[in-house]
């Protein structure tokens, strides 16, 4: 990482209208207990000048209206907040959700690649991925896209060098120590292991997203019949995409 | 004072031919990025703001963003309108339609956007604004998310659509023509202002030199999410980060070393290291570039960028 300002928390410039509040270096479940109250306090401290907040594993992106606040003014207010920030022990209850998942090369074209990179068999990759109860750390990237962790260290593989242009909806994927399921067709650089039949984002449902920050999630391996019976789409990935 | 838009709406246009991509855009969708919902809004803030201003609408009014062209609209009543941004060879009943000016249009007249002649995205504003039911606080149309637009479900314009418009209350004043300096020529090589970000120091010295001295080409992998630039391969000492929020204009560099400038429909969170962020007006300028066009990245200070942005916005608030 950069030499300057190794101390945390610190503020990093994120353009004309934003500050990235970096609170932690690594993904830990306990990070949420600090990031959630910080987001609440930003709402109070910036008021009408606040445009958006994007909490994630180790950071909070604060977006403000540059017509009302300069970067310098926003920075002062954020530094003040950080000065006496305390953790919120309530954060992190959350529901337990199960995502039925069909792990198969036809819908998980990176299963073999992950097996090769990790030295595990395909069966061991599946067992390992389905054997962990994950925590939702953040929603982002696309509506209802839940960033979950921590993935078993044995499954840690990098993102693809060049992201795919179109990842099919409901693809189950891993990258680094993270896992996720794609609620919509989007570009994506994660390694695809299979597909879930769960409905991840539904604009007619309260809160839109099946998963919320703090939820616990388990991927449950199912066969193709069960996957299709529960509404899963078995259309294979197009070759080379 | 800008005039207010009444709630009463009427059909303004019928879509005779939809073209590849015409989208309803207000200023964007804010306050919901924590659900993973993106910002949306006009890819070119400059063109969108001027179209609305010339039509006499307040800031934030919804206008049509027309990409490439191929669109034919038939007026269902007499309307006052303005087109700004790209020159897509627009005509009104076969006669060239002036850009950057307020124009009157009669019921039954055909408004055609043909093909790009200068720039990529034209903005059509109608006095009173286009009107639709907001979704999560905005009518901004984001196709990928299935949110906003005339149907609320993120649909681009389709043949046969009838577009509702509002009515302006009487009074108020706005210019009927844009000054010369606002009428941008998008064929020239763009100089894009970039505010260096936290990871800039993680790129190698040679890569930093190249980032700000090389000529970059706009790739054909370019849309409202982001625009890929091709040129020298930039090397960063860190391959990927823990995923974190991404602002408008952020320039991220995946391991293939080719930067991607992220625009209005970008993902809200990502994990590639970033050179920094383009200013809103530079992101807008990039959104008007056609594949193959040359651009340069220019590092600017926050102070200078803020001054430029505030001067731009000041011309739209009365």
Structural class of chain B: mainly beta
Radius of gyration of chain A: 19 Å
Total strand segments of chain A:
13
Oligomer: heterodimer
CATH fold call of the largest domain in chain A: Cyclophilin
Tell me, rounded to a whole number, the average pLDDT of chain A.
Answer: 90
Strand content range of chain B:
25-35%
Q: Helicity of chain A, in percent?
A: 10-25%
- Largest interface summary: A-B, 58 and 55 residues
Class by SSE composition of chain A: alpha+beta
Q: Output the number of helix runs of chain B.
A: 4
Q: How do the strands line up in the largest sheet of chain B? A: 12-19-16-17-14-13-20
> How many structural units, i.e. domains of chain B?
2
For the record, the count of structural domains of chain A works out to 2
Can you say what the CATH homologous superfamily of the largest domain in chain A is?
Cyclophilin-like
Helix share, percent of chain B: 10-25%
Total helical segments of chain A: 5
Largest sheet of chain A: 7 strands, mixed
User: Can you count the beta strands of chain B?
Assistant: 20
Question: Summed up, what is this model?
Answer:
Chain A is of the alpha+beta class and 241 residues long.
Question: Can you characterise this structure?
Answer:
The complex is a heterodimer of chains A (241) and B (318). Chain A is of the alpha+beta class and 241 residues long. Chain A folds into 2 domains: 10-83, 2-Layer Sandwich (Gyrase A, domain 2); 96-229, Beta Barrel (Cyclophilin). Chain A has helices spanning 32-46, 71-83, 111-118, 122-130, 224-229; strands spanning 10-13, 18-22, 50-55, 59-64, 96-103, 134-139, 146-149, 164-167, 171-175, 178-181, 186-188, 191-196, 216-221. In chain A, the strands form 3 sheets. Chain A has a 7-stranded mixed beta sheet. Chain A has a 4-stranded antiparallel beta sheet with strand order 1-2-4-3, with helices on one face. Chain A has a two-stranded antiparallel ribbon with strand order 8-11. The longest helix of chain A is centred in the first third of the chain and has 15 residues, at 32-46. With 318 residues, chain B is mainly β. Chain B has 2 domains: 3-182, no CATH class; 190-314, Cyclophilin. Helix content of chain B is 13%, strand content 33%. Chain B is built from 4 helices and 20 strands. In chain B, the strands form 4 sheets. Chain B has a 7-stranded mixed β-barrel with strand order 12-19-16-17-14-13-20. In chain B, a hairpin with a 7-residue loop joins strand 16 and strand 17 (260-262). The radius of gyration of chain B is 20 Å and the shape is globular. The mean pLDDT of chain B is 94. At the A-B interface, strand 2, strand 3 and strand 4 of A face strand 15, strand 18, strand 19 and helix 4 of B.
